[in-house]
Each structure stands twice: as structure tokens, then as C-alpha cells.
Specification:
Distance between the termini of chain A: 37 Å
Strand content of chain B: 5-15%
CATH architecture of chain A: 3-Layer(aba) Sandwich
Strand content of chain A: 15-25%
Number of strands of chain A: 5
Number of domains of chain A: 1
Distance between the termini of chain B: 45 Å
Shape of chain A: globular
Number of helices of chain B: 22
Strand order of the largest sheet of chain B: 1-10-9-8-7
Oligomer: heterodimer
Structural class of chain B: mainly alpha
Shape of chain B: globular
Largest sheet of chain A: 5 strands, parallel
Number of strands of chain B: 10
């Protein structure tokens, strides 16, 4: 079976954590659109920032919720490659399963769609976002101090 | 004030070629200098395939277009043709087409709002008929879609079946397919896909079928663009395109059913991207034509002039279009289009200024056409062929790109060939290296992008919100799917499917004649996909991220 991300990969950088255990992020694509360049660059930056990145590939809401729980992640990153309504539904399913799990989103997200996601309390990183802002956001959302490995 | 003895920054092209402050005759290597003066229309064709260039044949204005229901796509195509587009291009819904799923497949239902977002849903020939309604396909160059390898046989057969039903002889049709390995196995890796070996068989079948029945049709189009926008640099894109062509031509030669001159002519319609790296990318097109001539004459012994001229379609890089301050993208689109024209492209699509936000709005689409028309009619550039020819700088870049690209071809062949590098992930790793170095250069500000990592203040009074998604594509497609199932001649459909399954299992048979029967019997893409999956299984995706 093909998917954008077909294996779990782990951090090589210093752990982004206060208690020694690296924080875990699930990155998943909401659409059946296989362009992978964006998620690749973001995954690399997060790993370099000390996170363990679990790649969920092109996943449905059900699959994302299951992976988030099975992998016991601290944060979910959604690559929104399709309609914002799909992302909204997935966020709802995630919150129903684990209300405390933070979510952030990136991808081709039009300004009007970004507003809708932000209204749900989801931070949005459209194209052109700086990678260090994404990593900082991940640290904030997982309650980890800025790591000394950056820069 | 900067002091003159300060160490200058290293100037390099986007692909890493070191650049001097100026160029002279000593910078053009002897091998290239010997042929560089050959006129346009003369081998090795780096200066262009035709002596009169755009005087006799302007480039084709050819924009990607499509979304929603087939009627929505049809309306957009007519809008573009009315605005001066000179060929049209069909986009199919990614969810259904790329995966050969009908809309009631669970993976599609789970994200039904996405259906139709970037292309119209065409599950059976009925929907293709709606998409092509009133379009003069007998006299207009058309792209039938089928960018993804496993989808192409259906997309082409559906287009051709519409023509047959209108009484247009297939031999009269001119247009193009795509079946692009770069998109399918490198840049936009689908969740499910036939493996590369049956993918190659499908493409060779299409090439053979077209040579017999559709002599004016470009059967497959190698799209280096999709390699470039995934991360391959200019000489990697060039080299990989040549290595891809080698796979097709070797396969056709191995089968031994086609004259190699005809095969070369069929495969010689190729696509690249242009970016903001103006001179390197214009030189890339010149190098591509020269390399094509060398590949065909030396590897395949082709001598017919018509088969030795590569025809180029350019799409300006979508990855270079920015989300921030999107009106700047009109300038970027213009410069990238200019690059394509200076490089002598035969056909051109300009990314919409809202490319980083959505599929093109009508206005963005119109601007993409207008950019091309301004270049054609207001600049006088088309008056002279290969206007960059003879520039020490551009000739030096052309030669250096060619040298590096052949080295890359050798590396690809040493890895077992283009397909092997897709199967192993070797080519993805090359793309990833460049993705990473580009991201670092942007983060450090070494690569400046206006409005994105510098000069960020934006006083534009307009917000560009992109094109709003169509909301009824899914329910309408579901209704149509059920209608086809209800109304078609079931016995004919079943017989055609059985024949298709048998043909898939027999590599000596060409799949396209039976695909024409399958499509005519109103078999749906989901059923075709099931037959392919049964016959060939699923591609084992290499490590991407």
C-alpha cells in the first residue's frame, strides 16, 4: 500500500521536552492529494527541533484519531490539502476523543478558510510560513521550553 | 558603503553553477562552441526546431483548468478559449481519478467535500461527454487529462470515445495525453497506484495505439515540471527527463512493433518548468533540445529530422508563486513566462497569481492568458528566434547544464535506470536534499522572497481569497454513478470488464483497444481500478519523508 508516509520515524535531535522524554507529533494529510514536499520540509524541521515525528500519511478522521491515541502523541499537525470542512470535521473528532490534544494546521489554506480554523483555536501555517515559527508553535503547544539545538 | 576588497558573496545559479561577473568567448567549451552557431531549425536544435520560430507558429496558450462538476469545468474551458487560449486542458478530480475510485469508495466518502476541488469528476464516459459539451475537439488541441499513469488509459479512451460518438475520425484528433511518471511516482504519490512496471507497459501501449490510430496525438508527455517542483534542480530535471525517455524508447524498441523514428516523434513532446532563475531556465530549454538530438541519434540511430526536434511545453513553477502579497505573482508569472518564450517553448501555461491559495479564480486565469498575450503581441519578442543565442553567458550555461545533466543520466542508469530510482527512492532522496537546502536558504534569508521573508509590509486594499470550492460535485457525481449502474447495458459492461482483465494478464496484448470497448460500455473508473489492482497489486512506495 502506498502512502505519503509509510513508516514511523523518530527524532535525531535533542529532545524537545522538559522532563527528558521527547514530545511526539503526528503529522497527517487530510486529503487524497499525494504532494508531499510541504509535509517533508515541516517534518524535517520538527525533527531538527527535537520532536519525534510520526507520519500518518493520507488519513481519514477515524485513522487520525486512532493513530493519535495509539501513538500517544502530544500534538497533531494537519496538512490540509483539501476543503476546510474536512479539516474541521477531523478536529471535531479529535477533540471528542481527546479534548486536551492540541492541533495545528498547514498547507494550501485560503485566508477565508484559515479564519475558520483559527476560530476553532487552531494555529494555521499557510505557504510561506517560516519553519522556526512552526517549531516554536509546536513547543508552545506541547509545553516545552525552546530547545538549545535551534539555530 | 561597501569596501571593494570585501570578499564577494558566492554567486551561484539555483542549481549550484558558479557564476562569474561577466562572460567571454573563453567560457564556452570547445564542443559547444563548434555547434553553437548552427541556425534555428538546424541540428543540434538547441536554438530551436524551426527557422522561423514564432513568426510561423506562436506558442500555444494552454492553461490547466478544471474543477467541480463536468459542467463547471466545461464552462471554465469555454471562458479560457473565449479569452484567447489556443488549446484546452482537462483536469480530473484527484480523489477519484488518481486512485481509480468511484465517489462511493470509502476513502472518498470520508472526505466528500474535497471531491471536485481541483478537477471535475469523470467516472464514466457520460461525464466526459458533459465536460466536452460543445467544445470543437475536431479543430482544437486538447489535453484529455490522465496525468497519473493508471488513470491515463481511461482518460484518453473517454476523450476519444466522445469524438467517435460525434463522428470525428480518431486520426483527425490532435491533442495530448500525459501519463507522467514524475507526477505519479515522485511528486504527487497517490495512496494507491499500479507499480512502475505495469505503468511502463500502459504507456508503451498508449504510444503504440496512438501511432496506429491517432498520428497527430502526443500519447504521453514526460513532465520534468513535476520533478522540478518536487525539488530536482535544473540539470537533474533535464537528466531525469532524458532517463525517463530512455525507459519509454527502450521498452518500445524491445517490443519491436514500432519504427523508432515514429516512436521518437511520439515521445518527443516534453514538459519542463521555468522558475525565477531566468537565464539558467532559458538555457535549460536550449540544452534539452540539444540533448534530445544527441540521445536520438546516438542511442537509437534516428535520422529523420522531424523526430529529432523536441517540442516543449512549459508550465511556470507553482512552487515559486507565493501566498503572501499574491499580486506580486503576476510579476513572477510574467518573468517565468518570458523565460519560457526566450527559451523557445512551443506551448505555455502560466500559474495563477492565486496559485498558493487555491485553484485559479476566473480573474487569475484570465491574467495568466493576458500575460501570454502581452508577451506575444506587445513586446516584439516573437520576431526573432532564439534571441539569447550567442550570449557567452547563456551558451556557457547551456553547455554546463548539458554536461551536468548527462552526468546525472549516467548516475540514473548506474542505479538501474529511471524507474529503478523511483522504486528505490533514490530520486526522491535527491529531491529531498534540495528541498532541505532551499528551506535552509530561505530561513537564513540567503534566498530572498519579496513579501515572504523580506519587504513584508502589505498595503494592498484587496484580499485575495482564491476560488471558492464548488459544493455540489459529490452529490451530483454519486447520482450519476448510480444512474450509469442502473441504465447501462450490463451484459456488455461485464463482457468488456472480463476482456480487460484478460488483457491485463497478457503483456503481449495492447490494452487500449479493449479500453475503448470498456469505456464505450460505460464501465466506471472504480471498476477499471479494481481490475488493475487485481492484476498488478499496489506500488510499494519508497521512503519519502
Amino acid at each position: 500500500m502506498s502512502s505519503v508516509a509509510n513508516e514511523t520515524t523518530h527524532a535525531t535531535g535533542s529532545p524537545a521536552a522538559t522532563d527528558g522524554a521527547p514530545r511526539r507529533i503526528l503529522l497527517a494529510k487530510t486529503a487524497l492529494d499525494g504532494h508531499w514536499r510541504g509535509i517533508s520540509v515541516v517534518a524535517r524541521a520538527l525533527r531538527d527541533g527535537g520532536f519525534q515525528v510520526i507520519l500518518g500519511g493520507m488519513s481519514t478522521g477515524t485513522e487520525i484519531v486512532r493513530a493519535a491515541i495509539d501513538e500517544d502523541v502530544d500534538l497533531v499537525g494537519l496538512n490540509v490539502g483539501g476543503h476546510v470542512e474536512v479539516a474541521e470535521r477531523i478536529i471535531g473528532e479529535l477533540r471528542a476523543a481527546r479534548a486536551d490534544l492540541p492541533v495545528f494546521a498547514g498547507g494550501i489554506i485560503a485566508p477565508w478558510a484559515a479564519k475558520r480554523l483559527r476560530a476553532l483555536g487552531v494555529e494555521v501555517f499557510p505557504p510561506g510560513s517560516q519553519l522556526d515559527e512552526i517549531v516554536d508553535c509546536a513547543r508552545r503547544l506541547t509545553g516545552t521550553e525552546p530547545s538549545d539545538v535551534s539555530g | 558603503m561597501p569596501s571593494h576588497d570585501q570578499r564577494p558573496p558566492a554567486y551561484r545559479s539555483a542549481s549550484g553553477i558558479e557564476l562569474k561577473a561577466s562572460y567571454g568567448p573563453e567560457d564556452v567549451p570547445a564542443e559547444h562552441a563548434r555547434v553553437m552557431g548552427a541556425a534555428p531549425g538546424q541540428p543540434p536544435y538547441h536554438r530551436g526546431g524551426f527557422p522561423q520560430g514564432y513568426r510561423t507558429k506562436p506558442w500555444r496558450i494552454f492553461q490547466l483548468s478544471g474543477f467541480g462538476k463536468p459542467e463547471d469545468e466545461n464552462e471554465r474551458i469555454k471562458f479560457l478559449l473565449r479569452n484567447g487560449e489556443t488549446g484546452f486542458l482537462m483536469e480530473h478530480d484527484r480523489n477519484t481519478a488518481d486512485h481509480l475510485y468511484n465517489v462511493d469508495h470509502p476513502d472518498v466518502v470520508a472526505r466528500k467535500e474535497d471531491v471536485g476541488l481541483t478537477g471535475a469528476v469523470m467516472q464514466s464516459v457520460r461525464e466526459t461527454e458533459l465536460c466536452l459539451a460543445d467544445l470543437p475537439i475536431e479543430s482544437t488541441f486538447g489535453h484529455a487529462g490522465g496525468a497519473v499513469v493508471q488513470h491515463a488509459p481511461f482518460a484518453l479512451a473517454a476523450y476519444w470515445t466522445v469524438a467517435k460518438r460525434r463522428g470525428i475520425p480518431l486520426a483527425q484528433l490532435f491533442g495530448t495525453g500525459q501519463s507522467d511518471f514524475f507526477l505519479t511516482y515522485l511528486g504527487c504519490v497517490t495512496k494507491q497506484q499500479v507499480p512502475t512496471a505495469p505503468g511502463l507497459r500502459l504507456n508503451a501501449d498508449i504510444i503504440e495505439f496512438c501511432s496506429e490510430h491517432l498520428p497527430k496525438w502526443v500519447p504521453v508527455s514526460i513532465a520534468g515540471y513535476n520533478g522540478g517542483d518536487t525539488g530536482l534542480n535544473a540539470w537533474q530535471e533535464l537528466g531525469a527527463v532524458m532517463a525517463n525517455a530512455i525507459e519509454y524508447l527502450d521498452e518500445v524498441e524491445r517490443r519491436g512493433r514500432m519504427d523508432m523514428t515514429v516512436a521518437a516523434q511520439r515521445v518527443g513532446g516534453v514538459n519542463f518548468r521555468t522558475t525565477m532563475e531566468i537565464f539558467e531556465d532559458a538555457a535549460k530549454l536550449r540544452a534539452a533540445r540539444k540533448m534530445w538530438h544527441k540521445l536520438l541519434t546516438e542511442r537509437y540511430g534516428v535520422t529523420d529530422e522531424r523526430a529529432l526536434r523536441m517540442r516543449i511545453h512549459i508550465v511556470t513553477s507553482g512552487a515559486y508563486m507565493q501566498y503572501q502579497q499574491p499580486f506580486n505573482n503576476i510579476v513572477r508569472g510574467t518573468l517565468m513566462a518570458l523565460t519560457a518564450v526566450l527559451g523557445g517553448t512551443q506551448s505555455l501555461g502560466v500559474s495563477g497569481y492565486d496559485e498558493a491559495i487555491s485553484i485559479p479564480s476566473e480573474h487569475a486565469h484570465q491574467m495568466s492568458v493576458r500575460i501570454q498575450q502581452i508577451l506575444e503581441h506587445e513586446t516584439n519578442i516573437p520576431a526573432v528566434t532564439d534571441p539569447l543565442g550567442g550570449s557567452y553567458y547563456v551558451e556557457s550555461l547551456t553547455a554546463e547544464l548539458e554536461r551536468r545533466a548527462w552526468e546525472f543520466v549516467d548516475q540514473l542508469l548506474a542505479q538501474g535506470g529511471f524507474l529503478a530510482t523511483l522504486d528505490s527512492g533514490w530520486l526522491h532522496a535527491r529531491a529531498r536534499e534540495n528541498q532541505e537546502s532551499q528551506a535552509i536558504a530561505e530561513a537564513r534569508g540567503e534566498r530572498k522572497i519579496v513579501g515572504v521573508n523580506c519587504f513584508k509590509e502589505d498595503i494592498a486594499p484587496w484580499e485575495v481569497d482564491g476560488f471558492p470550492p464548488v459544493t455540489d460535485a459529490y452529490p451530483v457525481a454519486l447520482e450519476r454513478l448510480n444512474a450509469v449502474r442502473r441504465e447501462r447495458h450490463e451484459q456488455a459492461a461485464t463482457a468488456a470488464m472480463r476482456e480487460l482483465a484478460a488483457t491485463c494478464r497478457d503483456p503481449d496484448r495492447n490494452i487500449m483497444p479493449v479500453m475503448m470497448q470498456v469505456v464505450d460500455a460505460e464501465v466506471t473508473i472504480g471498476e477499471i481500478g479494481d481490475i488493475f489492482r487485481q492484476a498488478w497489486g499496489d506500488w510499494q512506495t519508497p521512503k519519502l519523508v
